[in-house]
UniProtKB/TrEMBL annotation:
Residues 102-170 form the Bacteriophage T5 Orf172 DNA-binding domain. This is GIY-YIG nuclease family protein.
Amino acid sequence: MSDAADRTTRCGVEVSSARVCGLPVEAHTPVNLCRHHLLVAHEWVSRDVGVTDTLESPCLACGSRLGVRYPSGWLCAVCEWKVGEIPDSGVVRARVDVVYYLRFDDRIKIGTSSNPKSRLGSIVHDELLGFELGGRKLERRRHAQFASHRLDSSEWFQVHDALLRHIRVVAAGVDDPWLLHKRWLSEKIALHG
């Protein structure tokens, strides 16, 4: 077997100054890491980005069952309330779910969040292209709509005419997507005020 072929099928992590891991790499793994070292890398990264999982009980602030686990504790994945903390009785917590469109290099991410400031702050991107009012259901519809241009099983898509046309429609008349999001939040608060 050639050195090039061996590097693409064996883990390349240096375990000592004279030896690499060399365990097999699973097919279609995007990096040359064996399962063990891939899990080590995942644990390392998840310290900053968290791991999404089901909460033991609904969030006290919004009722969601989805949470994000960080080393410091759990946050609700929807409203980012710290799990276990009791919300103040007089506080109006406006929640507006949005589908966001981010460009990075030659690809576009379609994702969703009820707290896009925080969510987008943790995603490397070049430009926020727009927001669309809606949550996971709408996000799934958009993923299905543009599925033929999806990159692997991620939320990233190739740039293509149909997606760009859709984003132009979503962003029409909006100079700053953040101002639109603020307007949606204030409308939500006014409805409950």
